[in-house]
Amino acid sequence: MYVRTIHRKNKDGSSVEYVQLAHNAWNPEKGFAQAEVIYSFGRKDQLDIEAIKRLVNSLCRFLDPEDALTLQAKTGEHEPLPFVRSRPAGGAYLLNALWDRLHIGACLKAALKDREFTAPVEQALFAMVANRALCPSSKLAIEQWAAEEVFLGGDEAPLQVQHFYRAMDFLLEHAESLQKEVFWSTASLLNLTVDLIFFDTTNTYFEIEEPGPSELKAYGKSKEKRDDLPLVTVGLAVTREGIPVRCWVLPGNQHDSQSVAQVQQDLNNWKLGRVVWVMDRGMTSDENRR
């Protein structure tokens, strides 16, 4: 069915336009479709607009709510829905799929199984990962970002900055098992051959005057020429494709040869098999090469 207008000429030569509800029906005798008038609304210049609006609203109950609101807004029966705000979800949706594919959520759930955590640890960790990938900011800023600027999925309770710090404490306890699970999931997903490992370190410094009691903060040789500040060393092992195997946070005054010994010992427990290590010459020692 459709609404059409037709023109008729009066005896005085003037033209009048009529509005009709019609549909096309097949005429077997003539061999083609002809328009049949179902209802005539009368002259266009004499239409009962309010009656037509009521008819439209009556028909709207058979439509989807979204389409019904659109039509009712056009007829003036309802105000159009104002745009308030939107929260992008695409990036977080992709990251959430990778999160599940790499078994990160399953690993966290297994570690949380016997713990009495009231804080949403997995939700907080995923929010921090998503923020780092999509819009890097501080832990304090993530609270507002997760609540107002992105849709992370689900109907979880609002995250608070304290949740991020508690989740990081938990992550520190289970860093090795989580990194191992993520790496093997990645290796399986990408069909990696782990026969070559590249390893290197760097360090960064703390903006404080005294190192204080810590196993990590210590004065040493800064690669950023800040020997006046306490340091911490960061090590990273990657495959020949550049896929991270594992990272380490090490004391700032620890010599690289000592770091290599610790790294090799940690990865021996992963049962990687026979691998070739590639690193700077100054990081090796006779003991490490045995």
Biggest beta-sheet profile: 4 strands, mixed
Number of strands: 7
Low-confidence stretches: none
Number of domains: 3
Kindly describe this structure.
It is a single chain. The chain has 290 residues and is α+β, with helices and mostly antiparallel strands. The chain has 3 domains: 74 residues, no CATH class; 86 residues, no CATH class; 92 residues, no CATH class. The mean pLDDT is 86.
What is the structure about, briefly put?
By secondary structure, this protein is of the alpha+beta class.
Structure characteristics:
9 helices, alpha+beta, three-stranded antiparallel beta sheet, 290 residues, 38% helix, four-stranded mixed beta sheet
What does the secondary structure layout of this molecule look like, with pairings?
Blueprint: E1 2-9, E2 15-27, E3 32-43, H1 49-60, H2 65-75, H3 90-101, H4 104-112, H5 121-134, H6 139-149, H7 161-173, H8 175-190, E4 196-205, E5 231-239, E6 244-251, H9 256-268, E7 276-278
Parallel strand pairs: 4-7
Antiparallel strand pairs: 1-2, 2-3, 4-5, 5-6
Helix pairs in contact: 1-2, 5-7
